[in-house]
Specification:
This protein has 443 residues and is of the alpha+beta class. The chain is built from 12 helices and 19 strands. The relative contact order is 0.08.
Length: 443
């Protein structure tokens, strides 16, 4: 880890054993157009002190030194971004950098505590406390992806306005920040409660945040989910986010990871972006009494869930004594996610997502024959009280992600383009039996 000496303004290197003995302040800020980088600081390039980024770094170090810190950390110049291996390591370590810091200075360059330019102290009038808090909540800082973990992770936070005037902390500011970010106030008071919040809720915190590089929408979340994975700029948000979700699933049975809603006609169970969680209600986990494992395979996401169809759910609402029947093979199904969501009326109910069978696609997984499905009507779900699912059968199903669905269609088309009779809609299996095109051959 590299830290900047607050006296000399040179960057120094430390090994892991030295960090606990070297308390440091850390900066959270929004990047500007004139940030100074590691090699510029070390080489002391001629024009560096004229850059806005240098002035910001120097002021941060001066304030850190005033608070008793010999060392500080800032992402602009404490990482040598010329080397991808170092950048990847730093991104995977970012959560720990903020967690291990003594204090985080949050610099809000778009927040003023005076009604006019504070350089003119004759005419400047300080804003009221309510006005300052409103300005803090309206800061662009809350819209940036990386600042989420920089907000919830440090043990202590101090806020500074554009002129580096400190903004007094207090319960009124904490209350306002909890409301404007949607982050529970208990977490802002105790960072070690992070793991008690379900996957879906943590995703929602990030759902409206943006980053300069598309993949950083994902990479900025790794520490919040205790995920470590290679950083590969250029892979795109969707690819990075799917890999990220698979990493979460390796050590979690939290099904709120599937409790998203977005305007897709058809999809797999994995979301394409944190933005898909923007409009989800409060969520909660089930006690692990009857939970089934789920996992990704090269043919789709294998999952066990209560499965029925829409008509039976409607009938069950009217007649509680009605027995569930096995849905027809071509029916659009409802699959219950093993979690709870809060309805607008305050009730906790089970969300059920729509699944449509993929004609002619079935696979053997762990000795079981599984029908393939796609999630449809992704912007909606049905919620039902838990007692309404009593007696609803469990079924193991396979939900295809986009790439697997595309491959199924491609493989099916190529398969039947080589066989006779063409375009009849029917073919023969290896035993000579007539079957509908798309129906899987069973041994």
């Amino acid at each position: 880890m590299r830290l900047i000496n607050t006296k000399t303004l040179f960057v120094e290197s430390f090994d892991d054993s030295q960090i606990p003995k070297c308390p440091y302040a850390i900066l959270s800020h929004m990047w500007g157009s004139e940030e100074v980088l590691f090699h510029e600081v070390q080489d002391r390039q001629a024009d560096i002190e004229g850059k806005a980024g240098w002035r910001k770094m120097a002021k941060f170090c001066a304030i850190a030194r005033k608070h008793g810190f010999d060392y500080a950390w800032i992402d602009t110049c404490c990482i040598d971004k010329r080397y991808s291996a170092e950048l990847s390591e730093a991104i995977n370590s970012m959560y720990q950098y903020y967690y291990n810091s003594t204090v985080c200075f949050i610099y809000l360059e778009d927040v003023r505590i005076y009604t006019e330019d504070s350089d003119n102290m004759v005419t400047a009038v300080q804003k009221t406390r309510d006005q300052i808090i409103a300005s803090v909540c309206a800061s662009r800082w809350h819209t940036r992806g990386w600042t989420l973990q920089e907000f919830v992770t440090p043990r202590k936070r101090r806020y500074f306005a554009t002129d580096w005037s400190e903004i007094e902390d207090g319960t009124d500011l904490l209350d306002a920040l909890a409301k404007c970010t949607g982050i529970d106030e208990t977490l802002l008071e105790n960072r070690d409660l992070l793991r008690t919040f379900c996957v879906g809720e943590r995703m929602k915190w990030a759902s409206k945040r943006q980053t300069t590089r598309p993949e950083d929408v994902v990479y900025s979340l790794m520490g919040l989910f205790n995920v470590h994975m290679p950083v590969m700029y250029g892979e795109g948000t969707e690819m990075a986010f799917k890999k990220f979700q698979r990493e979460i699933m390796q050590s979690s049975f939290d099904m709120t990871i599937f409790a998203w809603r977005a305007e897709y006609e058809s999809s797999g169970l994995l979301a394409r972006s944190p933005a898909d969680f923007a409009n989800v209600p409060p969520m909660g986990l089930w006690a692990p009494w009857n939970l089934a494992p789920f996992s990704t395979t090269n043919v789709g996401l294998s999952i066990r869930a209560n499965i029925t169809d829409t008509q039976q759910i409607l009938d069950k609402t009217k007649q509680h004594h009605q027995t569930y029947k096995k849905p027809s093979s071509d029916a659009i199904l409802l699959a219950a996610l093993q979690c709870d969501v809060q309805t607008p009326t305050g009730q906790w109910q089970i969300p059920m997502v729509y699944l449509e069978p993929v004609k002619g696609a079935s696979f053997f997984i762990n000795g079981k024959h599984l029908q393939a499905y796609r999630r449809i009507r992704c912007a909606e779900w049905v919620t039902v009280p838990s007692k309404q699912l009593v007696g609803c059968p469990f079924e193991d199903v396979l939900v295809l992600q986009d790439e697997q669905y595309d491959l199924v269609r491609q493989a099916t088309q190529q398969h039947y383009s080589r066989r006779e009779p063409r375009h009849s809609g029917f073919g023969k299996d290896m035993n000579g039996h007539i079957r509908e095109e798309g129906q899987a051959v069973r041994g």
